[in-house]
């Protein structure tokens, strides 16, 4: 009897995708994940001449290299911005000479103790600013002083232990901003003082101008009514003030004050004749010239009274 073999089932599309999915999942789980790439941190010390750059860019700290006797061997550029000195002006000079007189003794003791004991030093001293750096217009005033905090440490050779140099740093105390604030306040006070001085000078100038105007106004009126009144008083009082000196034993005679009368010549109308003579209308009616002519004419006519009266009145008719 023949046996029948069952037909082999043909795999469908669903059965075909299952092994591929399982293969992909197994392959993905077997591949390890790559680690995250970290950004390298740049180190400042890897820069070329990083130490020189660090020293140069410090603008609020003065770097100092000192000798065993506190002589300046090196000075940073920050000294120009903080104190006004150039670094070459301080090299080979004594740092103590730049300090206030009352701070020099304490600093020398602290410096010597640090060198002798090979320990760190912390000192405070007032350093003098350059004169024109403080007040550019006043070179006679004392230089301004700024309080600094100075930290230092001696350096010795590792082999022999001999003293090599002394490294120090000086910073304005308590901070640079406070030092700048103090400078601002000082400039503000100086500005206020100058403004007060300008106001005083302005008031004095106005007072002088007023006095000058009054003087010129008075000089313009000089010779006006005041002079006329003084002239009138002189004319009125000259007759009574003139007293002739007689003998020592004899009495003094006073001249009678001539009356201030107005005379007009009836012939020519003149009013300023030095003498007034008798005319046909009475005494003092003719001027000197007209009176002489009238008297001459009267003498010719035989009338001699005119000339005599004229001569008699000539002495008492003078008007000043």
Automatic annotation (TrEMBL):
Record key words, sorted: Coiled coil, Metal-binding, Zinc, Zinc-finger
A single MF term (Gene Ontology): sequence-specific DNA binding
CDD domains recorded: PAS, ZnF_GATA
Record-annotated PAS domain positions: 63-118
Feature: compositional bias, Pro residues: 1-12
Domain GATA-type, residue spans: 259-292
Classification via Gene3D superfamilies: Erythroid Transcription Factor GATA-1, subunit A (3.30.50.10), PAS domain (3.30.450.20)
Gene Ontology biological-process entries: regulation of DNA-templated transcription
Biased composition (Low complexity): 13-30
Stretches with biased composition (Polar residues): 311-320
Coiled-coil residue spans: 184-211
Domain of life: Eukaryota
Region annotation (Disordered) ranges: 1-34, 298-320
Entries under InterPro entries matching the protein: GATA_TF, PAS, PAS-like_dom_sf, PAS_fold_3, Znf_GATA, Znf_NHR/GATA
PANTHER family xrefs: GATA TRANSCRIPTION FACTOR (PTHR45658), PROTEIN GAT2 (PTHR45658:SF18)
Name of the molecule in the record: White collar 2-like protein
Gene (name only): WC2
């Amino acid at each position: 009897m023949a046996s029948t073999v069952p037909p082999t089932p043909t795999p469908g599309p669903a059965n075909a995708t299952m092994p591929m999915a399982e293969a992909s999942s197994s392959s993905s789980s077997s591949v390890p994940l790559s680690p995250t790439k970290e950004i390298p941190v740049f180190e400042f010390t890897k820069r070329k001449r990083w130490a020189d750059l660090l020293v140069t860019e410090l603008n609020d700290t003065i770097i100092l290299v000192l000798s065993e006797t506190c002589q300046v061997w090196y000075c940073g550029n920050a000294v120009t911005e903080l104190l006004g000195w150039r670094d070459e002006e301080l090299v080979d000079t004594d740092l103590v000479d730049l300090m206030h007189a009352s701070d020099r003794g304490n600093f020398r003791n602290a410096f010597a103790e640090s060198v002798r004991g090979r320990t760190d030093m912390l000192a405070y001293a007032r350093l003098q600013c350059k004169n024109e750096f403080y007040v550019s217009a006043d070179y006679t005033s004392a230089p301004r002083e700024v309080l600094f905090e100075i930290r230092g440490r001696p350096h010795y050779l590792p082999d022999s232990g001999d003293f090599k140099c002394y490294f120090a740093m000086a910073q304005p105390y308590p901070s640079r901003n406070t030092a700048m604030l103090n400078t601002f306040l000082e400039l503000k006070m100086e500005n206020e003082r100058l403004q007060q001085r300008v106001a005083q000078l302005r008031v004095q100038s106005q007072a002088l101008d007023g006095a000058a105007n009054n003087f010129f106004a008075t000089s313009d009126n000089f010779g006006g009514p005041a002079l006329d009144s003084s002239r009138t008083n002189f004319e009125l009082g000259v007759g009574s003030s003139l007293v002739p000196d007689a003998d020592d034993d004899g009495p003094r005679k006073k001249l009678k004050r001539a009356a201030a009368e107005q005379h007009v010549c009836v012939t020519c109308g003149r009013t300023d004749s030095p003498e007034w003579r008798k005319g046909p209308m009475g005494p003092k009616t003719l001027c000197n010239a007209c009176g002489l002519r009238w008297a001459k004419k009267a003498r010719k006519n035989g009338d001699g009274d005119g000339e005599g009266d004229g001569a008699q009145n000539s002495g008492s008719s003078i008007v000043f």
